[in-house]
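Input record, target 12 of the design panel.
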């Protein structure tokens, strides 16, 4: 139907732009000499939701198969997916050199569960996060599940689809023994931003920054997404005030309101806790109203 086709057009845009188009729905109806009723608006919203789910599923599936957008390969010992444009520039030898790059990169974080480094390769400033296997017991817990790198790759692409800023995900590598996963790597563009908590120690957030944060939580609620670890170090501010979310391996889409609400309350509590003794605590709490 024409409304289904309209919905498919609407969902080609980010959610924020989708709402602008839906707010102009009456103009579309007038152009077709139709009368827009409440039932019609609800019907259009249903078409849009169905079209969005279809587009999202199709887009994310492209992140895990070979296509114009993605260079994908899976063997007995390895699985990887990269943006084709990046791998064309970097060359397939980038994959073979990943351990060397991590060893020689500038360390941003050296933890037991993850090592994060900054490197420059093929003219690009990159961040590589290696998800480590700490011990045999940790391997047994992780080996059956998709790696945290694969989850972060998917979630980074989902955030981009939603219009939520995050360092551009470029790809992931997962070392395997057949079905069993071992260590894994996530590759992103370098953000260049500072941790939000550090910035707000020296100045209060601007109105634009508060609006950005409010929009993030609004989209999380609308699409039932939780971050899973909203400590201040996982939000960065770039020089021009753009806020980015990082550390996405615990991010989750929820199938029910009940599941989402539980996770969202934890996200909210963790986020507000960052400013427990800060002058901006009230402003932060107002983001959830």
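The sequence produced for target 12 reads:
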């Amino acid at each position: 139907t024409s409304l289904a086709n309209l919905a498919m057009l609407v969902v080609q845009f980010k959610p924020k732009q989708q709402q602008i188009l839906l707010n102009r729905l009456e103009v579309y109806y007038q152009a077709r000499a139709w009368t827009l009723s409440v039932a019609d608006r609800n019907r259009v919203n249903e078409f849009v939701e169905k079209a969005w789910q279809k587009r999202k599923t199709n887009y994310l599936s492209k992140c895990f198969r070979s296509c114009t957008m993605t260079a994908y390969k899976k063997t007995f010992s390895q699985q990887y997916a990269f943006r084709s444009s990046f791998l064309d520039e970097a060359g397939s030898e980038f994959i073979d050199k990943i351990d060397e790059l991590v060893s020689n990169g500038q360390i941003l974080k050296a933890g037991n569960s993850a090592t994060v480094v900054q490197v420059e390769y093929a003219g690009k400033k990159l961040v590589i996060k290696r998800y480590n296997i700490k011990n045999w017991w940790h391997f047994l817990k992780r080996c059956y599940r998709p790696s945290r790198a694969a989850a972060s790759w998917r979630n980074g692409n989902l955030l981009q689809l939603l219009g939520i800023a995050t360092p551009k995900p470029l790809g992931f590598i997962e070392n395997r023994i057949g079905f069993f996963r071992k260590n894994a790597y996530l590759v992103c563009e370098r953000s260049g931003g500072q941790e939000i908590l550090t910035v707000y120690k020296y100045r209060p957030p601007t109105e634009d920054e508060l609006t950005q944060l409010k929009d993030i939580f609004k989209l999380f609620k609308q699409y039932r997404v939780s971050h899973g670890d909203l400590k201040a170090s996982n939000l960065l501010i770039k020089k021009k005030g753009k806020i980015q979310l990082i550390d996405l391996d615990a991010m989750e889409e929820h199938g029910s309101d009940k599941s989402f609400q539980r996770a969202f309350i934890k996200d909210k509590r963790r986020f507000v806790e960052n400013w427990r003794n800060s002058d901006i605590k009230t402003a932060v709490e107002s983001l959830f109203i």
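The mean pLDDT is 91.
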